[in-house]
């Protein structure tokens, strides 16, 4: 398994818009590109951090090289409108291969 970690700062008051757009975009990326989905976190200074899981680096790289485009202009526009800042070049802050997985999913 392979993971990519991203972060975003969101315009004040657009947090809910961002979360909805992120969730829909994540679902579409999973359907189109074969990701395993993602978890969204919020750190102490308000930055949103997404941890996306992929079957392998090649699958992630193919999706990343295509900019993970999906055909839902409304969702994409809501996401872009909510985002105030991303890392330079919008690259992930980390990409990593999973060595051992001890997470359990609780819903």
Automatic annotation (TrEMBL):
Key words of the record: Monooxygenase, Oxidoreductase
Pfam families (alphabetical): ABM (PF03992)
Signal peptide boundaries: none
Statement: the UniProt record of this protein carries the keyword NADP: no
All copies of domain ABM, residue ranges: 1-64
Stated name of the protein: Antibiotic biosynthesis monooxygenase
GO molecular function, one term: monooxygenase activity
Organism listed in the record: Sphingomonas montanisoli
Keyword Oxidoreductase in record: yes
Domain of life of the source: Bacteria
InterPro entries xref list: ABM_dom (IPR007138), Dimeric_a/b-barrel (IPR011008)
């Amino acid at each position: 398994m392979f993971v990519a970690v991203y972060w975003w700062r969101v315009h004040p008051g657009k947090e809910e818009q961002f979360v909805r757009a992120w969730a829909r975009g994540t679902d579409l990326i999973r359907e189109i590109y074969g990701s395993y989905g993602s978890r969204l976190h919020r750190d102490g200074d308000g930055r949103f951090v997404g941890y996306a899981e992929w079957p392998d680096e090649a699958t992630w790289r193919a999706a990343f090289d295509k900019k993970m485009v999906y055909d839902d202009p409304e969702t994409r526009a809501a996401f872009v409108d909510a985002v105030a800042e991303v890392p330079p070049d919008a690259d992930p802050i980390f990409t990593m291969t999973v060595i051992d997985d001890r997470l359990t999913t609780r819903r």
